[in-house]
Design a protein that fits this description.
Blueprint lengths: L1 H4 L4 E7 L11 E7 L3 H13 L4 E4 L5 E3 L4 E7 L6 E4 L2 E5 L4 H10 L2 E2 L11 H7 L2 E2 L2 E2 L4 E7 L5 E5 L12 H4 L2 E8 L1 E2 L2 H18 L6 E4 L9 H7 L6 E2 L2 E3 L6 E4 L5 H19 L8 E3 L12
Parallel strand pairs: 2-5, 3-5, 4-19
Antiparallel strand pairs: 1-2, 6-7, 7-13, 8-14, 9-10, 11-12, 11-13, 15-18, 16-17, 17-18
């Protein structure tokens, strides 16, 4: 059906999502679609709504854990909608563009404001959805507006104020509107200073984060008044392992897939860390990573 409906977009069936996630885990998608145009995307959204087909949208799958049972219905990945352009000091990027590429694009034009994003591995759409941030910068600092498609297929523009940005949150998490394009409001800067800042942040990231292993990035949100990594270290959990997944020895806020780990391994490790931190420090750790999909028949469901 989908191949007949869509003109230019790739359609795969019963495709393992482990091939696309940064954790290298996750079960199959019933249907996996890579839209190339807004028109094809609208066809998918409207058809899923009309036929009550579950629809899941993934960005760059960098901050997500997909359960081993996979995802029913249709999964959309937007990484083939990745155009970047500029108008003056505004940079426009489609949802599937990598945030690091947009940061590099801006730097090459001597536009400042996106240096903080030079090491964030997610897509532009996912970054807007999560209000991604690092090293003192967040999407809310630089986003002027976002073009979205709602569940009826209608396209509209939301201002930064309408996106209601807060720590790792935007209104998109409630509306479930699909991001099509983000407009970044940047400033003209000095090329040398921009490059120096990006090199500094890249060095910090490479020296502190376990980039040599598959991971979903920072697993937990920062609890008020605490640092997650410090709590996990003090609890003696650094290096703790379940199956093929362990709490990183390099950065305790990360969980890395060191030996063919599964999503179930991730889920069990997350729950264990949450329970220990709650018992030791009376602090509740809330996951920053998105956890989606169905448990496999062998997997005990962990409600993280």
């Amino acid at each position: 059906m989908w191949k007949e409906l869509l003109k230019d977009s790739r359609v795969l069936t019963h495709e393992s999502l482990a091939s696309y996630t940064y954790t290298e885990t996750g079960g199959p998608a019933d249907v996996l679609i890579f839209p190339k145009t807004v028109e094809d995307l609208a066809v998918v959204v409207k058809k899923c709504r009309e036929d009550a087909i579950p629809l899941t949208v993934l960005g760059n799958a960098s901050n997500v854990i997909i359960r081993d049972g996979g995802i029913r219905g249709v999964v959309i990945m937007l990484n083939e909608m990745e155009a970047i352009r500029k108008e003056g000091s505004l940079v426009m990027a489609q949802a599937g563009a990598k945030l690091v590429d947009v940061s590099r694009y801006a730097a090459d034009l001597s536009l400042t404001g996106l240096e903080f994003a030079c090491g964030i591995p997610g897509s532009v759409g996912g970054a807007a959805f999560m209000n991604a941030g690092a090293y003192g910068g967040e999407m809310k600092d630089v986003v002027q507006s976002v073009t979205v498609m709602d569940k009826t297929g209608e396209v509209k523009v939301l201002t930064s104020k309408e996106l209601d940005f807060s720590y790792r949150h935007s209104s998109l998490q409630e509306s479930r509107d699909l991001v099509l394009e983000v407009v970044f409001n940047l400033r003209v800067g000095e090329a040398g200073a921009i490059e120096a800042k990006m090199q500094e942040l890249t060095h910090l990231r490479e020296s502190k984060q376990p980039l040599e292993y598959p991971s979903c990035g920072s697993v937990f949100k920062r609890p008020e008044g605490h640092y997650t990594g410090q709590l996990i270290q003090e609890a003696g959990l650094q290096g703790y392992r379940i199956g093929g997944v362990e709490v990183s020895k390099k950065h305790a806020g990360f969980m890395v897939n060191v030996d063919h780990g599964t999503a179930s391994d991730y889920m069990r490790l997350i729950r264990h860390v949450q329970e220990v931190i709650k018992e030791r420090f009376n602090v509740s750790l809330e996951t920053e990573v998105r956890i989606i999909g169905e448990a496999s028949s062998e997997e005990s469901i962990c409600d993280c």
